[in-house]
Design a protein that fits this description.
CATH architecture: 2-Layer Sandwich
Radius of gyration: 17 Å
Shape: elongated
Number of domains: 1
Protein name: Cyclic pyranopterin monophosphate synthase
GO molecular function: cyclic pyranopterin monophosphate synthase activity
Low-confidence stretches: none
CATH topology: Alpha-Beta Plaits
Strand order of the largest sheet: 2-3-1-4-5
Binding site for substrate: 75-77, 111-112
Strand content: 25-35%
Subunit structure: Homohexamer; trimer of dimers.
Pathway: Cofactor biosynthesis; molybdopterin biosynthesis
CATH superfamily: Molybdopterin cofactor biosynthesis C (MoaC) domain
Length: 156
């Protein structure tokens, strides 16, 4: 197994120097789910939730979070994101989120996509908790990534 890149020779954490890496097109997609009661799901779908348009607010929260990933996750590089999208899909018993982040640069955008998906789900919970406090967030994971030295990857 190779040595972790975020540790120096003494084992102390540090930010990896990516200055010599070539800038390439990078893209990552992450997803997750929130399970909730049928009543809460119906209120969101019909626009009758007490806090208003929950999906639009959660979408914007996810986009904002992707842009702030370096402030939230230690040792992440601040990136000039060229695109962030957050999409929701209705499922039986809940919603799924799919967040994509893109940049051209020396390091990947996996953490930005994961942060966008996570914060979008947290915002859904926050805005719908008056309808259902037993909601469950889960299955947050990287779905695919492209670009960079390690190439393309897709979850099975």
């Amino acid at each position: 197994m190779s040595k972790p890149t975020h540790l120096d020779d003494s084992g102390a954490a540090h930010m990896v120097d990516v200055g010599a890496k070539p800038a390439t097109r990078r893209r990552a997609v992450a997803g997750g789910r929130i399970a909730m009661s049928a009543a809460a799901l119906d209120a969101i779908r019909t626009g009758n939730a007490p806090k208003g348009d929950i999906l639009s607010t959660a979408r914007i929260a996810g986009i904002m979070a992707a842009k702030r990933t370096a402030d939230l996750i230690p040792l992440c590089h601040p990136l000039a994101l060229t695109s962030v999208t957050v999409e929701f899909a209705w499922e039986t018993g809940g919603l799924s989120v799919r967040a994509a982040a893109e940049t051209t640069g020396p390091t990947g955008v996996e953490m930005e996509a994961l942060t966008a998906a996570s914060v979008a789900l947290l915002t859904l919970y926050d805005m719908a908790k008056a309808l259902d406090r037993a909601m469950v967030l889960g299955d947050i994971r990287l779905l695919e990534k492209s670009g960079g030295r390690s190439g393309d990857w897709r979850a099975a």
